[in-house]
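Support request, please re-run this one:
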Amino acid sequence: MANRSAKGLRSIGLGGGVALAYVLALGATSAQAQTSSETPPARTAETESDSGELVVTAQRRSERLQDVPISISALGAEELSDRGVDDVTALRGVAPGVSISHSAGVNASNLVAMRGVSGLPQPIGTSLATGVYLDGVYLSRPDAAVFALDDIERIEILRGPQGTLYGRNTTAGAINIITRLPGDTVEGGLDVSAGNFNSFSARGSLSGPLGGNFSGGLSGGYRSHDGYITNTVTGHELNAVEDHTLRGVLRYLSDGGNFDARLSVDESVSTGQDVFKNVYAFPAATLLGPGNPEEVSLDANSESLTAREVTSRGVALTVTYSPTTQLELTSITSVRELQSDTSFDVDSSPIPLLVSSIRNSSDTFNQEVHAVWDLGRFRLTTGANYYHEEAEVGFGSNSGAATTLNYTNPHDTTTLDAYALFGQAEWDFTDRLTLVLGARYNEEHRDYTVDYTQAPVPGIVTSGSITDSIVIPSLGLNFELTPDVLLYAKYSEGYQAPGFNGFPGRLVPPNTFDAENLDAFELGIKSQFFDRALTFNAAAFHYEYSDLQVRGTPGPGLTDIRNAAGATIDGVEASVVLRANEYLSFTGNLTYLDARYDEFCELIGGGSPVGADPLCDATHADRSGNRLSLAPEWTGGVNANLEVPMGSITLRGNLGYSFETNSFFTSVNEDVLSTGGWERIDARLGVGFADGLEVYAFGRNLSDDRYTGYGLRALPNLAPVTFNDPRTYGVGIRYHF
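Re-run finished. Output below.
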């Protein structure tokens, strides 16, 4: 992997130079005609419009959130702090229609589902349904976004297929994490808190001018807590976590503000333990259920081997040049690395039988260029993207008496080269009616090798390649009924590239599976009333899936990925913001979802039992009518925020309630492998002082509702599950200037 990293770091210099030359060349002609009066104002990191409403860049340009004709939620820095959102996993229950698994097979691929579209919990050989971006840089795994930074400016959550405006194509949606840019004023802050389970968190940032049009910023975070789970065999506390993140930014901004170059470097390391519980008595196949989420029984040797370490680091160069007020050119060049080592006790019993280990690494190089033209009644965004990934996964099924771990059963490698051209045009027919046309050309080539020759019992090695290309269209129509009421209709196509099954068994060649396609139809309204004191947004959507990719588990360490015949998703979502007065505001969201397989005959295996479903034939169960994974029927929440000046101090309070009804983790729709539904109450109360200091207390999951966060089945007597976090609370001090 070191050689690949060196190649990637050399590539960023070459790619950045080529991209910078491209940007400057594109702008040269327009720059000749530019007059001094056309020089745009300096770009700032402000997130609010003059009216105090959030401004987002979901469509590659700054727009008031309410003016963006797509299903989008956004949380600014203050709301993120008030609601305790410090990484992607904390978005559970915050945005409509978003579900996130607590652990998806401990492979650095936690599942982020939107509107019932979740993708596959596979560490290799597949694409992600939801794209996660850090300042425009695509993160190859959602776990690379599990960090606590003090300089996050806002998070944008876009629902629905995203391909005509973003470098990587995604079917479910996209999550954009935008950090605060350093500028010509000194800014900084520190947030330190401590709580139960010996938890401790500290994050801080400092940015400001360096002289000569340069500015810089440095931010970092540290978190830790003791274990939430007691091993009844050894008496030890398990599931402790410790992680840290560091990030630095160097920025050059020209005097006129039309040339902006930013170089950023980041690294995050997370260590801990992923502890599963088997819902069956082992080795007997007696169903016990999840039982007490705070206790587990592992033999001492298995406990000593249970560990997780995830390291993510990256370098990115972003260059923006505006030769005129109508044209903005951007280049984003990035190199990223991800390394994840995990081992856990599969049978979750005192019997020293089986410890699984998985080593997952990914090195990526990504080059994107895009241009945004704003000609008044006509707006055009075009771009090109090249994405290169070299990944490998080593899996081991180790004897429970093992003292060293095996990562060769199998050892998979893959190289992916993906190319894309994308664009979106908006044409105002009238002052109220706008036509939106988008298209994406996507081409991917993947080479792979699945090697069982170094397994404890040697097997075969198989290599192959997969190539696919497609044109993906989108069409939209927006109508401004009034200045504060926007109606929109949209059709877009989702596409998940074909892939390979990385865990077929030591004597079985890996199968490949076809691309899946989704036709997405959506009608929506974005509206404000009473001088914008009340915001009401709603959308109805209909998805038609074909060749849906579904994973089965024939046995321990084995998977079988096939294309299901089809599925249909129907849903309605709504969100409300009410500013009752200058002190008190409320937000709420509610989503109804009906996401089911139209027809799907699944191969019966150790991890895919018949369950309550009828048979298609002697070897296949009929899953038709079953719900898709991570697709709860109802999700929602309400939140109240209070901010009352009281002389020299300000009282700040936040109270939130969120919920999900039951959702399943497999196509079998077994109750034992489902969340069972959950409810959550979070709260924060603080006292702020005029100098920027705030003292606060917080509580998360105050109802202490424990539920299954993820589950899978490998055998009739082997179905390990994980749980969400228990009630946590504490106090902290926050200071910003």
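The domain at 2-33+48-736 is CATH 2.40.170.20 (Maltoporin; Chain A). DSSP finds three helices and 42 strands in the chain.
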